[in-house]
Amino acid sequence: MRQFFESSKVLDCLLFAVVTGSLDRILLDDIIVNIGIIGLGFMGVTHIAGYAKVPGVRVSAVCTENPAVLAGDLSKIGGNIQFDSSLVDISGAQKYSRWQDLVADTNVDAVDICLPTVLHLTVATAALAAGKHVLCEKPMALTEADCERMIEAATAAKRVLMIGQVLRFWPEYMALQEFGSSKRAGALRSVTFVRQCGLPDWSKWLPVESLSGGATLDLLIHDIDQALLLCGMPDRVSAKKLGDGDGIMATLIYPGGPEVRIQGGWFQPGAPLHMSFQAVADRGQVDFGSEGLFFSDTTGTRRKLELSGPDGYQKEVAYFVDCCVKNAEPLLCTPRASADAVKVALRMKQSRSLNGEQIKC
Length: 361
Hints:
Number of strands: 15
Strand content: 15-25%
Strand order of the largest sheet: 14-13-12-11-7-10-9-8-15
Mean pLDDT: 89
CATH class of the largest domain: Alpha Beta
Distance between the termini: 41 Å
Helix content: 25-40%
Low-confidence stretches: 1-29
CATH superfamily of the largest domain: NAD(P)-binding Rossmann-like Domain
C-alpha cells in the first residue's frame, strides 16, 4: 500500500506485523492485508471489486451459505445499483459456508461483514474477539444497545471497527460537507435529503423489518448520517408516513436552525433508485440529483461541478485498510457516529408510529 506511507513506511510495516502477528507475511517494500468477506450479495461483491483496486490488499477468504455463489456463479446477485458481477473473481479465495470458520482463519487480518443487519452484532463481536479488524455494512445494528456492545468489543480487542457509511467517501456528498463546513457561502439555512427506490425484491431479508430495520434504518441511514455529519445531533425529530410503502417524511429539529428534512423509503416494486440533496446557505446553494452536482449563487449563476477520482466504495475500503495497517481509529467514519445515526433513525420510526409526535434525541 505504497500510497498510504511516507518516510515512516518501514516502521509502519513492523508495527502492523506486531499488531496482527503476521510478521512472517510482511515484505518491507509492500504490505499484504488479507481480507475475509462474509456475505456475497450485492454489497459483498461490490466491496471485493473495491479491494481489487487497492494495492497491498488480497481478498483471501469468502463466506456464503449459497453453494452456487461459492462456486463462482455471481450472475444472479442483484441490487438497486447496476453492477457487472463478471468483473469479480473469487477463484483464488478460501471458501467457507459458515462464518465462524472464516472468523477462525488465522490467515485473515480483517473481516468485512455484508450480512443481514440482525447478524451484525453477533458476527462483528466474534470477529473482534478473534483479533480481526472489522468493516461492517450499515446500518450498524438494529438497536442502540447492540451498537454499544459493538463499540465495547472493539475497544476491548484494541481493533478497528468501522461501519460502511459509504456516502462519507462519495464525491458529491463530500462536496456537500465541504460546502457546509467551509461556510464560504455563509451559514447553512436548510438541507433536504431524498432517497427512495422500489421494494427490494432482489433480497428476501431486506423487506423483513425484524431482520433489516426497514427502509428508514437500512436505506435512509445514509442521509441521516450525512445530516448528523453536517449539522450535528438534532434536539428532536418529527416524522410521518410517506406513501403506501415503507416511506417516511422527517424533520430534524435544531433550535435556531437549520431546517433539515429527510424523506424517502421503499415504494413500488421496480422503481429505480433516486437520491438527491439540496443545501441552501446565505449566499449560495448546492444541489445534487440525476443530472449531477450544481452550485448556484446570489447572482443567478448556476454551474455544474465536475468531480473525478475513485468511486466511494473504493475510497471507503481503502481507508478501512489504511486504518487496519495503522491500527488507528477510523476518524473519518467513527463507530460512535454510526451509532448516533442508528439512534436518530429509531427516533424517526418512533415518531412516525405516533403520527409526527416530536421525539427527543
